[in-house]
Amino acid sequence: MRVFTRTAAAWAIAAGSFLPVAGASGQATYNLAATADFTGPYADVMKDLIGSQRPAIEWWNGEVGQKLGIKLAVKQYDHRYDAAQAASLWPGIKAELNPIIMLGAGGPDVAALQGRLPGDKIPMIMSTAGYGFAWKPDPWIFNPRPTYSHEAAAFFNWFRARRGGSGPLKVAIISSEASPAYIDQQRGIEKYAKDNPDKVEIVESVFTEVQPTDLTTQINRVVRKGAEVISIQTNTAAVVATKRALQALGKNVPILMSSHNGVLDSGRAVGDVKQMEGDFEAYAMAVPTDEKTPARAFFDMLATKHGMKSQWTVTAVQGMGQVLVALRAIEATAKRVGADKITGEAIRETMLSTPIASDQIFGTLPDLKFTKEAPFPVTGLTAGIGTIKDGKYVAAAKDAAVPVLSKW
């Protein structure tokens, strides 16, 4: 993975080069822009996420785009998971690439660009779950997954049913005020608990620095309050600090993580995935186990034929799903308006009118149907739940129902 410095990151390309709009051999060539975090809190997981974009686009160019008379290129920009940096990069990205789609990398993109994209007429497709602060009608941002709070609530209901009993599940939240996304995750879970007091009780929401090193005092406090699950949807550093605190205290409370800080990534960060025994991750997409699935077969094909260097991880599935949604939207738009007439606005219209079947995106995500109601499908989704059992990564559940949540 290439290392980017803060002084040189502004216009850095993750790998390779991008193509100009004028294509060769009669092809219409279009640019995609992507943000990444190579020098911030997600540098440890970005290699697998971003590493899946270029091979998938290369596959599409050869197998689909060539028949349509289209060639796509992508360029990545390091925004360090910072909203101010994302905002400052955006004018240059537009001027340099004139992209038809933006591939977003997280909450900073949404916070910085959600007010600009409608005027610029460029849709942004995310790899992440959604955010409550972007839960608005007539979207230009598209999340194939519901909000992080939806995904967490799916896990809480599944875990409570497995636990048995009639009382609510007692949950502690580890968060940070360093990012709008982090605050949003905490608020959404608290809103769900308030609306469903028979299902979830929040014993405490702990706010700490974005990458904490010692949480022993805070974890001791929430354990004493009876926490049955500790929810961490921020980053691997918070998971490591929490795991170290639980070990120091001699306590065994399951940690819930999301896709970008899940059990394998956090296990590597803590030193051994076996230390994540009995912990969980939840997200509305495929669980990357060793089973033979369409998603795994597609990944293996990209590794064999198109230079995929990513490992088979949750973040690789996350990146693969994101770019496949973009590719299928471009493909459907080309068939609708013509290969030489593709614009960001036309792609958005396609996404709002044309469902994407799960088999079109190799099972990386469930069936997707976007509407003007929200930036993400609001009903009919299920979540995958991964865990470490007997030292091995397995799927604890593949179809946990995602409940309906009220806005917060």
From TrEMBL:
Keyword list, A-Z: Signal
Ranges of residues in domain Leucine-binding protein: 31-363
InterPro entries in alphabetical order: Leu-bd, Peripla_BP_I
Signal sequence, start to end: 1-24
UniProt key word Signal: yes
UniProt keyword Membrane, yes or no: no
Assigned protein family: Belongs to the leucine-binding protein family.
Protein name: ABC transporter substrate-binding protein
